[in-house]
From TrEMBL:
Membrane-protein topology: Multi-pass membrane protein
InterPro entries for this protein: MFS, MFS_dom, MFS_trans_sf
Originating species: Gordonia lacunae
Gene3D superfamilies the UniProt entry points to: MFS general substrate transporter like domains (1.20.1250.20)
Protein name: Major facilitator superfamily (MFS) profile domain-containing protein
A GO cellular component entry from the record: plasma membrane
Transmembrane feature ranges: 23-48, 60-79, 88-106, 112-135, 147-165, 177-198, 210-228, 240-257, 278-300, 312-330, 337-357, 369-397, 409-431, 486-509
Keywords on record: Membrane, Transmembrane, Transmembrane helix, Transport
Length: 521
């Protein structure tokens, strides 16, 4: 029986051959979904130079991808439960390829945003679908953790491969060609999925929840827009205040809607499970710190250390490669070590690495920074699989798809806020520090005013486009020093957030609460 004619299954374990195909396609799907994140990150300085983009505009390059992931993941999970996960999976692959094609042909920064948004919408379809496919194929809770570990390793493999490929491609052919890779990978996955992937739906009937979807999308978009614009205009600006008020109102509407809905997009009773609540909050906080950290780190490599995309790519690959190696083991370790200690211990390692990065400067060597990135990657590898497996396994089987979508949604909300929050902190810290750095560098007042004005208006990258004659080296040195002040502020903030997430995990995921299905409702 072919995939196109196989019966729709529910809570029954798939045959062995179907299970293998499902798990392979789930891992390939999450690989495609996450491929743009770090491949784009290492080319942000090049994109900024090509279009004269400000720091806020570069934040939107990242957030244009992550925002649709956060806004539409829950809806994609419902669509998969109602209409079939295979269908949603195939649509996700098509949108990912289309988004890459649009960005590949972009002639303006806004077209890059559109391409990123399409790819992010495709990723929103893939993420909950791939986890729901694994939950369907492997109903046994304990066995499922091993396969979620493999899924997490596929995710980290994507984050590792992205910069390694993007670096040589960007330096040899130009930044836009980094978008070529996702197209054939997505199309190959599409062709294989059509033949091999069985269909599945939720074992209990669900309906689409449009009021919940609309209010969630408005809340997330308004919140991220407000934070990004606050980094440029300040929190007292009228558009920032209006955006944040809209976010609060939409969030309240979402909660009221979900409580009253007969078929909620996110059943708020899920949060009665301590394990689900803890892992969801930890996921959001961790990804805010991590994705924001990657954004700032990529700017540091490009603007301060003046590295090419190949060198920057290798540095990010160290971190993600370490996560990938540990990720598969972490799923198996859950049988012997409680998730509390894996997640809490991993986050402590991440926080230690972030605080250790406070000592770096413009001349820090590859060897000196590499061990910090490896420690950070090892810590994240310990966190990813247990965090996801605990969230999915903490609720009854028929709610596993919703739990996966909910955990991913909050994770991506954190990921969307990361570049926005840390980008705003970076700009604020650097701009406040820049005038004194220019004075220390011996720059005359007229040149100082010109540089500060350009940076205020368009971000730190604007300084490199100014024609300053003999003052250029000294000015760029001062800009680099100011950037480091802003970066140290970001690292402190990220480290504190990550440490708070570790404490949250250690307190809420108490021993004795095994990673098992908890009653909900």
């Amino acid at each position: 029986m072919t995939a196109t004619t196989s019966p729709v299954t529910t809570g029954v374990s798939a045959p062995p051959e179907r299970r293998t195909a499902t798990i392979v396609m789930a891992c390939l799907g999450v690989f495609v979904a996450y491929l743009p994140i770090t491949s784009v990150a290492v080319t942000l300085p090049a994109i900024g130079t090509a279009f004269g983009a400000s720091t806020a505009q570069l934040s939107w390059v990242q957030d244009a991808f992550v925002l649709p992931m956060a806004a539409f993941i829950l809806t994609a999970g419902v669509f998969g439960d109602v209409h079939g996960r295979r269908k949603v999976y195939l649509v996700g692959l098509c949108l990912t390829a289309l988004g890459a094609l649009v960005a590949l042909s972009a002639q303006s920064i806004s077209m890059v945003w559109i391409g990123q948004a399409l790819a992010g919408t495709g990723a929103a379809a893939l993420l909950p679908t791939t986890l729901a496919l694994i939950s369907h194929a492997v109903p046994d809770v304990r066995e499922r953790g091993k396969f979620i570990g493999i899924w997490a390793s596929a995710l980290m493999l994507s984050l590792t491969v992205g910069p390694l490929v993007a670096g040589p491609v960007a330096e040899s052919a130009g930044w836009r060609w980094i978008y070529l890779l996702p197209i054939p990978v997505a199309l190959i996955a599409l062709a294989v999925a059509v033949v091999t992937l069985p269909e599945s739906r939720a074992p209990h009937a669900r309906r689409l929840d449009w009021p919940g979807q609309i209010s969630a999308a408005v809340a997330v978009t308004a919140l991220v827009f407000g934070v990004i614009e606050a980094g440029v205009y300040g929190f007292g600006d009228a558009r920032v205040i209006v955006a944040l008020l809209i976010a609060v109102i939409a969030a309240v509407v979402f909660v009221i809607t979900e409580k009253r809905s007969a078929s909620p997009m996110l059943d708020l009773d899920l949060f009665r499970s301590r394990a689900f609540t803890a892992t969801t909050l930890v996921a959001m906080i961790t990804f805010l710190a991590l994705i924001g950290f990657i954004f700032v780190l990529s700017m540091y490599f490009g603007l301060v250390q003046q590295l090419g995309t190949i060198e920057a790519g290798w540095r990010l690959a160290l971190m993600n490669g370490a996560s990938m190696l540990v990720g598969a083991l972490a799923g198996k370790m859950m049988h012997r070590i409680h998730a509390r200690f894996l997640i809490g211990g991993g986050l402590i390692m991440v926080a230690v690495a972030q605080f250790a990065l406070l000592t770096i400067d413009a001349d820090t060597s590859f060897a000196a920074i590499s061990w910090r990135l490896v420690v950070l990657g090892l810590g994240m590898g310990l966190v990813m699989a247990p965090m996801t497996a605990t969230a999915v396994s903490a609720v009854p089987y028929h709610l596993s798809g919703m739990a996966a979508a909910g955990n991913n949604a909050f994770r991506q909300v954190g990921g969307a806020l990361g570049p926005a929050v840390l980008g705003a902190l970076l700009t604020a810290g650097a701009v406040n520090s820049l005038p004194q750095k220019l004075v220390d560098a011996g720059i005359d007042e007229p040149v100082r005013d010109r540089v500060v004005g350009a940076v205020d208006a368009e971000g730190l990258a604007a300084a490199s486009s100014l024609d300053l004659g003999a003052d250029t080296p000294a000015v760029m040195g001062a800009v680099g020093d100011a950037f480091l002040d802003g970066m140290h502020l970001c690292l402190t903030f990220s480290g504190v957030l990550t440490a708070a997430a570790a404490v949250l995990a250690l307190v809420m995921l108490r021993p004795g609460r095994a990673v098992e299905e908890q009653p909900v409702g």
